[in-house]
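Methods: holo model generation. Sequences were used as deposited, without trimming of termini or removal of tags, and paired with ligand SMILES retrieved from the corresponding compound records. Each pair was processed once, and we did not select among multiple samples. The sequence and zinc ion SMILES for this entry were:
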Amino acid sequence: MKTLVCNECRTPKMVPDSFQGESVNCSKCGAVIFVPRTPTTRSPGVAPSRRAETTGNSVLATIG
Ligand SMILES: [Zn+2]
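and the model returned the structure below.
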């Protein structure tokens, strides 16, 4: 269960965790509230947008 706040009327709304990634309607004004998806599992060492800093360049063929 998490509490979201309506963007339109600022009314707090309780939303079950199972609604993650979906949209609910504000019970007061009816506006659509998007429920953000929060990661429940953390895998160490795997972070998005932080990879491939060490590609290529280290070994250039020295043939001869
Ligand atoms: Zn509202």
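The two ends are 66 Å apart (CA to CA).
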